[in-house]
């Protein structure tokens, strides 16, 4: 991984050096091209009007130009350099850097003809294809006048950018004078069909319109919740052990602040101006300038105003495309708050109050992610909560119980530190499953019954023929001593005598000799023929697996032929035949033993399933539970006790077969099943089972030194659970309410009149 990172860094560095070299090369070409154009012929002198129109662009950059106008022709190209969020770009025509005033950029073509004047750094465009500097200034002045009229809401027709203005070009419009609607003898609508738009007046937003623009938000609260959970996560780090309490407190405060942000009603923003306008509503497909395959359908009033309708209004069939309409638009973003006489955002807000469910969905997602993170980090919330409770309550005294009756009379409270010691019996898990997925009761030492009755485990009747298969005499295998001696001698010659791994590998490679295999074949046949022995299916499986695992051969007509059936293997295993004694590897021997155990377990599982109903579980006393085996749980010695204890007994290396498991159950039901235990830890749960037996769960793994960590985890659990529960319920409720509200609103929209030209004049 480090190599990949180094390669990527070197690649990025080389690419950056290449980009700088390319940029510097292009800038050198720009300077050379500018030097060349200075020797080009002069077409004319710049006029005073043109020089005046250039002043805003020259003064802003501290540039001066000469009075000679030259011709420049060529391809337009933009190049530059981007680094760390900043960029430097240059516009060039025929490699000469050019300054494009006003809207000259809109007139760029594949091949460009321009007239320019020169400065020290580049050329300034006066004419470019169909662009003229003075006309560009007039368009800019008309645009400014149009913007000023729109913002002020002056009554009158909005100026047209391309029309000529009598007198001094753009003077009246630049001064902000609104053009009065012209009378047209051809009809009141003809001027609107030509794209004209009238401003009819201006007002401010109503409180309902302000609320519809603001919405209810939710992002600030969501980010605050993320910050709260981040603080709690940091509080669980070992590196912050000295400041964990402060970090957890800060996380709680941020969480409370996030909840306040969520439930509070946002302060109303200042009302914005709203203009009432009249014009023809057009729906136009606008092609994306950077990707011609993308078309965006936009709404316009005339050819001057882009209109944004509420989404549910655009779905209505009554939208009068191609007709003259009156609309009320916000001056800031041209969004509609009124459309005709019956379409009003404020009216809808009053009659059909919006239901906001998105904020609940957002917080539900944040809560689910936080809950998933804490589940992965701390999967035992009961233990963490108990340790946190002890931290908050400041309790550190340890209660000692040496008698089950004492514990039953006074069950320790949740979060209390206790030490129990006595003699008990591990519980029996009646629903455990074996490796073969059979339901087999097993001894569960994570639960101990203290001072209870002994369970009753019945015997199971397994046929002797099946027991013979499970016995050690079924297959007798010994190492091939000659081969073992040869391998040992070779290892000594190669200097591997002191290598434990080499010793293990060499031992695994030593072949095993199985003698008297005909006896094993006879035992399999006896178990298959016994009426209470192996079932036909189990017998067939065992014989097939033995043939496959042993992989024996017989000589036939001077050729070694593989043994492929049980009958061939049984015949070749007779006392005077080739396979009476077999040479197999340890892997083959293990496969044979595994196949035999599976066959025996198939019989024993059926017997156990019948005997399960006769098992009488232990009862009475007190049940102790722990995440560890209680006979293996570590605890501090009490005063007066010796610190050294006998090591706990373990089932490692015990017989894993079902027969062995049942034998351990039977032994467990005897006096040998009672064992001494000593357990000290934190109480994470207490109560009684269905029979009224007291139960106490004690966790010895919870360390008092991580109480602050447990407090942070517990707080994390509580806040995440509350966030998921509250917002899950509210999201479901608000979603149902929103669907009902939308259905009523759609029904109302269907009855509204078309907001067209009818009744306007």
Descriptive account of the structure:
With 761 residues, the protein is of the alpha+beta class. The chain contains 22 helices and 27 strands. Strands 1, 2, 3, 4, 5, 6, 7 and 8 form an 8-stranded mixed sheet that branches. Strands 9, 10, 11, 12, 13, 14, 15 and 16 form an 8-stranded antiparallel sheet that branches. Helix 7 packs parallel to helix 11 and helix 12 packs across helix 22. The protein is elongated, with a radius of gyration of 45 Å. The chain starts with a helix and ends in an 11-residue tail after the last helix. About 5% of the residues have low confidence. Belongs to the IgaA family. It comes from Acidovorax cavernicola. InterPro entries: IgaA (IPR010771).
Largest sheet: 8 strands, mixed
Q: Given the structure, what is the number of helices?
A: 22
DSSP, total strands: 27
Class computed from helices, strands and strand pairing: alpha+beta
Mean pLDDT: 82
Shape: elongated
- N-C termini distance: 76 Å
Hey, roughly how much beta strand do the residues contain? 15-25%
- State the helical fraction: 40-55%
Uncertain runs are 164-186, 634-650
For the CA atoms, what is the radius of gyration?
Answer: 45 Å
